[in-house]
Amino acid sequence: MNDPHSIPGLGPLNITRRHFFAKGAAGLGGAALASLLGADAFGAPSAQGLVPLAPHFPPKARRVVYLFQSGGPSHLDLFDYKPKLIEENGRQLPAHVRRGQRLTGMSSNQASIPLAGSHFKFARHGKSGAWISELMPHTAGIADRLCFVKSMYTEAINHDPAVTFFQTGAQQAGRPSLGAWLSYGLGSMNEDLPSFVVLVSAGQGGQPLYSRLWGSGFVDSRHQGVRFRAGKDPVLFLSNPDGLCQSGRRAMLDRLAELNRHQYAQELDPEIESRVAQYELAYRMQTSVPEVTDLSDEPQETFDLYGNSARVPGTYAANCLLARRLLERDVRFVQLYHQGWDQHDNLPGAIRGQAKETDQPSAAFILDLERRGLLDDTLVIWGGEFGRTAYSQGRLTSRNYGRDHHPRCFTLWMAGAGVKHGFSYGRTDDYGYNIADESGQPISPSKHAFTPGAVHVHDLQATIMRILGVDHQRLTHKYQGRRFRLTDVHGHVIEDLLA
User: Fold this and answer.
1) In order of start, what are the domains of the chain with their CATH numbers?
2) What is the 3-state secondary structure (H, E, C) of 44-78?
3) What angle do CA 413, 85, 127 make, to 5 degrees?
4) 317 phi and psi, to 5 degrees?
5) Rounded Cα gap, residues 3 and 222, in angstroms
6) What is the DSSP letter of 214?
7) 200-230 tens-digit pLDDT
8) Phi, psi of 113 (to 5 degrees)
9) pLDDT in tens, 20-33
């Protein structure tokens, strides 16, 4: 497979022009080769040194916001209405439904595996008639703007590999994240902010999140996500230390760049120039970051839309509002994480809190983008790493139940550029336990990859990249003798989702 970011014998094209000419047999020969390949193969580098790939397809979106709900939200209590599951509440999970699926160690030793119907009321909403739980009234109000995927499935049954799989395309750590791949392939649209920004809700308990989830892996370090935190210093070590003025900082960077140029001339290591570019971006961010994170210029109607918690730095609502401000300034990829959806016990009480924190801000974010014209070229994704079981983990009572991890089927939604609106794709069986075919019959997990309607994690990633104009099979990076890509060795674009 050809690597559009490589030239045979010269390695990755995230090297600089200086490195290109130094490694070529002669400068004129290298220039002739570049002429033969065509300028569109490379694009023009930004001030950050990020060289974009010419899109493989006309892009429908320029930006992405991923509202990642860490812990695994229960599709059965939010979006996947199952009256039969409610009707058979308390009965044992039928063997023909389980089909020998492995369970986690948290519920595999239970003597009883009782079905647990949702405690929450569902209703149809919008012209599309989407089933949405009473827990999500604001989301219900934008039902006709959403594209539901009811038949997601994954390979991992535990949190860390499952989150890593969604974010990097592999269950093992070390691969570039989705945002890093898009930065690597498409470059930056903003000279004063990172192309990839990460926001994590503050003060949330739940499964831990690691910086490797937004790392650059083996591609250039300029493509890693930059985390913005709540408080007076949104980016660590960005502000000048006491006693150093701005002119002193500028002089220091100029001297440091000179030293790095000497080192580069000796070693021809492209990471040296990456480091210099990051220093320069950090210098510009000393002005741009305080401006974008200052919400004082937002009118009261904005806070009315997102909810009062949007005034509290670090909340999910505040981060959604900040994400909109970043999009306005042409940040290409914004990743939000909200923890706390891992509800093995006391699900009815715990999920109410999670829904209250996220429902209004998520819907407000879509409406805010729409009224500003940003939804026309922005793709928004909402979802977690897997779903929850149809049976109760632990004791089932009339007032309480828990749900274990469930990778076999779950729901996420998308909105904005490139996807159909007021549309639901795929379905599950009567218990919300297996993906089902068009007749409602459960599909064997071994046949998911060959059955229309089933959406693997790599299928979702391939579809996201297609919406941005990228062929997931052609955006590769050669590392340790192999050409890697986000979707590894498979993945299909789900054409039925595309607008």
Assistant:
1) 1-42 (no CATH), 63-232+302-497 (3.40.720)
2) CCCCCCCCCCCCCCCCCCCEEEEEEECCCCCHHHH
3) 40
4) -65, -45
5) 20
6) G
7) 999 888 899 999 999 999 999 999 999 999 9
8) -120, 75
9) 444 443 333 333 32
Q: In the beta sheet, which residues pair with residue 413? A: 148, 382
Q: Report the amino acid identity of residue 363.
A: A
State which amino acid sits at residue 136.
M
3-state secondary structure of 16: coil
State the pTM of this model. Answer: 0.88
- DSSP alpha helices (H): ranges in 102-232? 137-141, 159-168, 178-186
Distance CA 17, CA 2 (A): 21
Query: First CA to last CA across the chain, in angstroms?
Result: 29
Taking the C-alpha atoms of residue 42 and residue 157, their distance in angstroms, rounded to an integer, is: 40
In percent, the amount of the chain with pLDDT more than 70 equals: 89
Say how far apart CA 384 and CA 69 lie, in whole Å: 5
Question: pLDDT by residue (tens digit) across 174-191?
Answer: 999 999 999 999 999 989
- Each residue's pLDDT tens digit, 365-412: 999 999 999 999 999 999 999 999 999 999 999 999 999 999 999 999
Q: Is residue 168 within 8 Å of 160, Cβ to Cβ?
A: no
pLDDT in tens, 471-499: 999 999 999 999 999 999 889 999 999 99
Q: Would you state the structure tokens that stand for residue 471, as one six-digit string?
A: 């062929």
Q: Residue 363 has what pLDDT?
A: 98
Contact predicate 302/346, CB 8 Å = no
State how far the alpha carbon of 31 is from the alpha carbons of 8, 17, 28, 43, 305, in Å: 15, 10, 5, 15, 54
Q: What is the DSSP-derived secondary structure letter of residue 114? A: B
CA 69, 70, 72, 74 torsion: positive or negative? negative
